[in-house]
């Protein structure tokens, strides 16, 4: 096998441990690596029958579950590009995502064709996806994709800089953006993490009978997708579920006896505050990424379960940059509150506003040389700001100390990270401004023990004084939830007489007044 196609990872596992279980569903179903490869081949045949070939984009708006694994690898086998769209999106958000990425084919769950209502007549071909092997029935005029057959299809060769996937993430400014990642850049990120985690950058280093990894994050999320690829890269199976839940987690822990986890801080919060004790015996460590975890939450978890929490810093655009591993902990190198040691092989600079590299200890923007991303497919200006001469400008601010440890101090951008999801204030503001009783609004992030940050809306009322503040606040939250995915809606609304403006008429988020401490959302 040659080339950089991500489908080669699955094909390598089908070759060296084909009879081992490579995929498990929460409902008890499982598939060997060999059968996963055959089903992915069947998907490739089905997509090819729809006219999909190398470089064509295929949008997947599917509920999280094991079936997405077959569709990801099936598309990659053809050299096609999956566009993974959140199944939490409503019709308007799906339509916007399709408009940004221009896929040739859109796949939606057979039971959720209502989400297509926002698409205009110039949309791509649309097919519904039902259970494999069952006769498809047209739903709301949408023809089903017949995809359940098995076929041995070899991955086409692709160049390292070819687009492998489009994920929705935050850029440096504006609304959510569609980021293009590459096959070769993803392979490089996987090798880097494998070297740090296992000491070797080669594939298939895990024992054939190693316990599987739980893919705790959804597969439309960069964290979930990369977790799946990493498990297969090192040779482990994967357990995929619909969504996180403490009771669901407990059952899976008893069934599989996991030895490690990758969680968001929100998940750790729910585990710590659960009334039940989970079977963490045998778990070596928990890796946390996606947002900062508070020291008190980390302490409460480690004291309760005796399992160390390791952190990882990176992004969809830059890949894995820094973190701690078990060897660091044993060697006493860990520094509380830091983002971790910069990983070997990572070229990282701290730069000032003029683009000059700064010495150790100086604070500035974190900039990383990376071949992972081709930029944003929907915003040339933001892409030019993101990637300059091969360097990714993260928008995060921090410094590196004399020991090569990275410390974060803030973000240049206004993006809010709520429970690991990226939320843009402008998108919430646009929705709230449609309400007749909102004259002006500004959304900002506030610290929150469980979610990291929550979006809070400061609203200047426009009449309707007979409506009490509390009643209107509840109505505005409901109004936003009707128009946005639930994680984007403001968790709190506060009313102010006016918003402070600069001489040019702009409202600075940094100048917005900060009321008292938020209650738990």
From TrEMBL:
Enzyme class: ligase
Annotated keywords: Ligase
AMP-binding enzyme C-terminal domain mapped to chain residues: 427-506
Transmembrane stretches, start-end: none
Positions of region (Disordered): 501-521
Any Pfam family: AMP-binding_C
AMP-dependent synthetase/ligase domain residues: 11-376
EC number of the protein: 6.2.1.3
Gene Ontology molecular function terms on file: long-chain fatty acid-CoA ligase activity
Protein's UniProt keywords contain Repressor: no
PANTHER family tied to this protein: LONG-CHAIN-FATTY-ACID--COA LIGASE, NONRIBOSOMAL PEPTIDE SYNTHASE PES1 (EUROFUNG)-RELATED
Protein name: Long-chain acyl-CoA synthetase
